[in-house]
Amino acid sequence: MTTEASTPDRSAVGAPAHSPAPASYQHWIGGAWHRPAHGHYRITDPATELPVGHAPEGGAEEVDAAVRAARAAQEEWAATPARDRARVLERIGDLLTERGPALVPLLQAETGATLKVTRGMQLPTAADRFRRYARGALEPDTVPLAPQPVGASALAPGGLIGAAAVRRPVGVVGCITSYNFPLVNLAGKVAPALAMGNAVVCKPAPQDPLTCLELGPLLQEAGLPDGLYNAVTGSGAGPGEALVAHPDVDMISFTGSTSVGKKIAQSAGRGMKRTLMELGGKGAALVLDDADGRVREAALGSIASTWTFHSGQICTAPTRALVHRSLYDEFVTALSRYASALTLGDPTNERTVVGPLISAAQRDRVERHIAKAREQGATVLAGGERPAEPATGFYVAPTLITDVAPGMAVAREELFGPVVVVLPFEDDDEAVRIANSTPYGLYDYVFSGDTGRAWRLAGRLRSGNVGLNTVQRHPETPFGGCKESGVGRDGGSFGLHAYSELQSLVWPS
User: Which ranges in the chain are annotated with CATH 3.40.309.10?
Assistant: First the structure.
């Protein structure tokens, strides 16, 4: 352990969770490791409950140092030619691909994600996002506007007036990220922010920040000037609150729960900070009566992804299956068999499909929701009990709940676990009413044999995103939610818009 060294114990980085000497990390500020003033806290492997490493306990003083470093570096970076910013971002993507295999054990251990998810969705997607915004740095930032004849007034003489709208950097961006996909989520914020000429101060989720700290030296090696990427961690809310409240932070980009998002909005509003917030979700998958065999099979696999994709710890998961009554019994039977057949266990085993939840607290929260559903008269057809094996780890068995009323908490609240509820409906109007009945509006799905009908029905859903016969994502679409699922959009070129300010330039022609 290296609590006194100036860098983490590199020999322990990426070691298995049972390593006798897990690394102790420090904050990454201004291109160097900074010893934490408040010591360290333990990062726990959700599968083994053993220490993975020790993260620095941050406070307002470290956040202030990080913000000052970002502010000092941002102006020169904004003036750097776009092609040079693009080269750095491209190199970051290359290094992530090159170093990915060495980072997999650390990332897998701190998140509890299965190897399939870690190898296939975490590191490669993060690398792709940096490469995407390497291209984004070269996208035109100026929108020319047609000249307009304007009459004389007390303000100015008349004439033909030309104009353009130009995207400018926001400045210093505070990035607060979620625990489910720490590196991917961070890359989705940092890459477009850097592409637009901003500097970032990152506050990763407290449960699994170590790989995000590892990103600091990698970005430096890729040629990113010091001060543009800073990472401060902490076990509690203090560092995040200090980051949001800091007067020299221009924007907050947050991914996490709606309850925390509301607190951030209140604090950021006092300083009129720009906010981009992706919050909770309670996705509905509508299976219409005209779904043929192929579409029903797609719907079944899509709904089951709530269990198989990171144990339901994903805000876009189709956790509510809304099935036309003519297909209801068929779907309930198929989903029950599916859930019961899934392999739950050690996430480092290639055959494992369902791994643990991130923490004991999150497991207990999901179990309380299941127990409450039972008390309210719902039926737990599969799962619902803490698995006997493995003996350690924060596991919840894939759970299927029926006899659910739309007003029950299990049908309205985001659980963030491997739990699916099934509700029948009689017609499209009832399906839409149920789908729209939660406070959330992040991602819904429509499964129909008639894609035109599905398209029209999607227009009635109060959701920022709708999948038609698929849960697959398109990387260039604007991503974000309605209602309590968030504010703003990122993704593709929309991410460049999110991390920039529009400046209007006007001149006489």
Answer: 284-480
Q: What CATH number does domain 27-279+486-505 carry, 3.90.1170.50, 3.90.1800.10, 3.40.605.10, 3.30.70.260?
A: 3.40.605.10
pLDDT in tens, the chain (509 residues): 333 333 444 333 333 333 446 899 999 999 999 999 999 999 999 999 999 999 999 999 999 999 999 999 999 999 999 999 999 999 999 999 999 999 999 999 999 999 999 999 999 999 999 999 999 999 999 999 999 999 999 999 999 999 999 999 999 999 999 999 999 999 999 999 999 999 999 999 999 999 999 999 999 999 999 999 999 999 999 999 999 999 999 999 999 999 999 999 999 999 999 999 999 999 999 999 999 999 999 999 999 999 999 999 999 999 999 999 999 999 999 999 999 999 999 999 999 999 999 999 999 999 999 999 999 999 999 999 899 999 999 999 999 999 999 999 999 999 999 999 999 999 999 999 999 999 999 999 999 999 999 999 999 999 999 999 999 999 999 999 999 999 999 999 999 999 999 999 999 98
Around Cβ 160, how many Cβ atoms within 10 Å? 10
CA-to-CA distance for 192 and 478, rounded, in angstroms?
13
The span from the CA of 159 to the CA of 154, in Å, is: 14
- CATH class of the domain whose range is 284-480: alpha beta
Cβ neighbourhood burial of 83 (10 Å; 0-12, 13-18, 19+): exposed
Q: What angle do CA 346, 352, 358 make, to 5 degrees?
A: 55
**Strand 274-278 relative to strand 251-255, pairing:** parallel
Is the pTM of the predicted complex or chain greater than 0.70? yes
| C-alpha gyration radius of the chain | 24
Contact 244, 174 (CB under 8 A): yes
Closest CA to 407 of 437, 443, 378: 437
Residues belonging to the active site: 278, 315
Distance between CA atoms of residues 257 and 173, nearest Å: 19
How long a stretch of residues is the chain?
509
